[in-house]
Amino acid sequence: MPREAEEGSSVELRCEWRLFGGAGLYSVKWYKDEHEFFRYLPDSDPKILTFTQPGVNLDKRSNSEKSIRLVNVRLATSGQYKCEVSTEGPSFASFQQIANLTVIALPERGPEITGLSSHYAVGENVTANCTAWPSVPKANLRWTINGEAVPTENTVQHPPLAPVSTKGIPNSLGLRLEAEPRHFEGGGGLVRIKCIAEVGSRAFEAEKKVLMAYVNNQRLSAGDLRSNRGCRLDDRFLYGPLILSIILIVVAT
């Protein structure tokens, strides 16, 4: 999975390399989508040269032969990054490694659940809607009831929503199922209906807690206790294989 960074954060790109057999270093170059934007030449003056590329904003105080730092990353910073190390003669060897960076724009808040009725009886239809705020990429939505995933056949995928200016793309997913006794079992009849919105490796949640009570052993009444919106961030970090490796370190600012 591509490495991620939040819009506006800083990212350190490290290029770890070792030379063998007495070979000398000739150059270290960095490319974004095959366009060079950084060059290190140990025997030149100046040693470091930079080239303007869209989406690449270098912290010129934090660059060296083995690491560079991107600051205030934007959506345009997303792309394929390549580090290329070349040696001097007599071998004139060149080695390279590639890594992807994806910049994500998180939603301003968690998803919202709407449309739940206050009373349900076994056999009645339970309908609701979950709306995710704009993000990049568009949030992937899913439902759970009492911690169990709702099957796809009980969800309704609405037509794509239009982007909201530059803030990203919203998304919406419906819930359609028939109330069954198993939904009300355990936990004192407390039914937890949850919508999870995933943006990249981050996950945001909205939950409705509904208390079910039997009336004449037939009908159930539901009181919507509260709606809790939370955020769970799942940070993932992958390391590439080494002989020559590029390590992307996301540094929040």
TrEMBL record:
<feature type="domain" description="Ig-like">
    <location>
        <begin position="1"/>
        <end position="102"/>
    </location>
</feature>
<dbReference type="Pfam" id="PF07686">
    <property type="entry name" value="V-set"/>
</dbReference>
<dbReference type="InterPro" id="IPR013783">
    <property type="entry name" value="Ig-like_fold"/>
</dbReference>
<dbReference type="InterPro" id="IPR007110">
    <property type="entry name" value="Ig-like_dom"/>
</dbReference>
<protein>
    <recommendedName>
        <fullName>Ig-like domain-containing protein</fullName>
    </recommendedName>
</protein>
<dbReference type="InterPro" id="IPR013106">
    <property type="entry name" value="Ig_V-set"/>
</dbReference>
<dbReference type="InterPro" id="IPR036179">
    <property type="entry name" value="Ig-like_dom_sf"/>
</dbReference>
<dbReference type="Pfam" id="PF13895">
    <property type="entry name" value="Ig_2"/>
</dbReference>
<dbReference type="InterPro" id="IPR003599">
    <property type="entry name" value="Ig_sub"/>
</dbReference>
